[in-house]
Hints:
The protein is mostly beta strands. The chain is 2% helix and 54% strand. The protein has helices at residues 13-23, 66-71, and strands at residues 60-65, 87-89, 100-102, 105-106, 113-115, 118-119, 131-138, 152-158, 166-174, 178-189, 192-203, 212-226, 229-242, 276-290, 296-315, 332-360, 363-379, 384-392, 410-426, 431-448, 455-471, 476-487, 507-519, 523-541, 547-548, 557-578, 581-595, 613-622, 629-638, 641-642, 650-651, 654-667, 670-679, 687-689, 692-693, 696-697, 700-701, 706-714. Strand 10 and strand 11 form a beta hairpin.
Amino acid sequence: MSTFQPAPLAPLAPLAILALACAHAVAQPTQTITITGSSAANSAGVAGFGDVPLSRSPFSATVIGARQLADAGISSLADITRLDAGLTDAYNAPGYWGQVAVRGFTLDNRFNFRRDGLPVNAETVLPTGNKSGLELFKGTSGIQAGTSAPGGLLNLVVKRPTSKPLTSAGIEWVEPGTWTVDADLSRRAGPLGWRLNASATRLDPATRNSRGRSHLLAAAGEVALGGDALLEVEIERSHQSQPSTPGFSLLGSRLPSPDSIDPTLNLNNQAWSLPVVFDGTTGSVRWTQPLAGGVQMVAHLMQQRLRTDDRIAFPYGCDAEGDYSVYCSDGRFDYYDFRSEGERRTTTAADLSLAGRAVLGGLTHHWSTGVLATRHEARFNRQAFNYVGTGTIDGLAVVPPDPTLTDENTNRDERSLEWRLQDRLMLTADWQLWAGLRHTRIQRESVRTNGSRPTDYAQSFTTPWLALSWQATPALMAYASAGQGVESEVAPNRARYTNAGQALPSLKSRQIEAGLKHRGDTLSWQLAWFDIQRPLWSDIRTSTGLPTDDCSDALPCTRRADGSARHRGLEAEAEWRAGALSLRGSALWLTARREGSADAARNGLRPTNVPAQSVKLQAAWNVADVPGLALLAFGSHEGERMVLPDNRVATDGWTRIDLGLRYAQTVAGTQWVWRAGVDNVADERAWKEAPFQFGHAYLYPLAPRTWRLALNVTL
Length: 715
């Protein structure tokens, strides 16, 4: 088995950047580098309460700016888990779409993602090159979304035309051979403004057999219509083609040592392996119009069109030992040729909202109301999932392809209409009451690609949210909140279910939260305690009344609710700024357990792939002797994760340290920003995550030590 070796010139990278920095030390620095996060005085539009600063909002949220992502060397959503303890990996396969968990619950890629506040499908690689920031709302999301998994919502904010002319270009190298070039242009001419973002990437990561390419082209424009009215349009086109990387697994009942596995090995390494291809086009139009009485109207329309070719030489299970949840005890596994080509997903959303301020009964109300109509369509072709032979974890096995289309897929349609009302009521100068209510009606249909197993059902539900906040001092706020979220389970459509073809009831998750927030000139911090209960579904064996993983026509089941997942925890965040040094840290202590199952043996078990503790740290030190130079450090620690649902096996916790530097200078009116970094400085070997997906336990290693360099020039 080969081992990873850093590029020969990689250790010289920081020295090269420092030499350039010293050569231009006489240039004037552009800015002091600070570490900022959710306790800064910014706002999160995804929460639905306008521009209220997060430090005065009765909920937990994080805003991550484009510069923070660049300083940390983050170019994909899968890596944002490095910046906030509330986010953890949840099946982040390299080369595939990313999945993250918030407060231990995996976000649903179909329903928990937003783009400028409108629903977007994240079953693709969502580009970040034309995004000015990411907003993360934590907790149940009943007032922000009709249906969604608990945990939170992730909103991508599109870059818009700047107030001053902008001409910027950049180049980045990531070991061993990934190169990215990008450009960012913005201009104004009277009432018109426009912005153009473009990038192209040659993907050559440390993981072998993973070369690919991606590109992005995005444009945004706006026109001031007079009287503060504004019309905004934007469109983006993205493409990525890259082989994905499957996970390793348990060897029988044994957890392999991460030191025994080459983290650069890709088991999707057959000569016939094809890349996963993601193509996406998304565009939107937004009209903002002030009305009489200080009321503001916003009409927003967006459509997203995705096309995917999903292909992989897929390791799955061990037929020789009769266990399909793990690999064989001797390191072998079953290989499958999986292909689902020409997948098409379309999301269309239209939102109309009104917001204003009113005084009723001597009390001031900051209110908003709106209606959101959304349509999701998913169209597929027949797919291949064919056994082609036996592989081995050393990656040396060679098996033949079998692209025969042997299995049906499922086409899906969903239409939803959501009415919402929110109010921020000023009870006194220090006390505020926050309330929200959303009523949703959904219509869902599905059918196999051969016309079999059709389902069709409609549901309506209402989700409330209520919070009370007290501004104890100008710097300290306390709050308490309670809210609901809702998920709608797909109706069973196989004869093995006694309730086949019947719509299942929607199940509501519930959260209570209490917190403190302090914002000062030097130190800002916040604490949040939460308790979330989410109903769980199980297949209940008709003959025993107990949940089972083995339904059949001979042994039928009923699909119904079976207890709940309860996640209780404490989140802490702090930022400290003193002179040249700034620090930011976040921590999550989580107790996640199964409760109320008809099978007593399942109660008290922890969910798979969810660490009980997570700590994320960032630091920046501005070097006084070299104006414009900042040294950066990032630390991540996560506790053990359960690998199997019965909790028999767990991975060890791990700690990773990343270092970097940022040098900003201005020469003849041109700003130069140099960045260098090394991720996983100690070349730590550990199992980063252990997702249990598709009835199988997977293991993903920490990426090896990786060097990166970047330069951005702004005129």
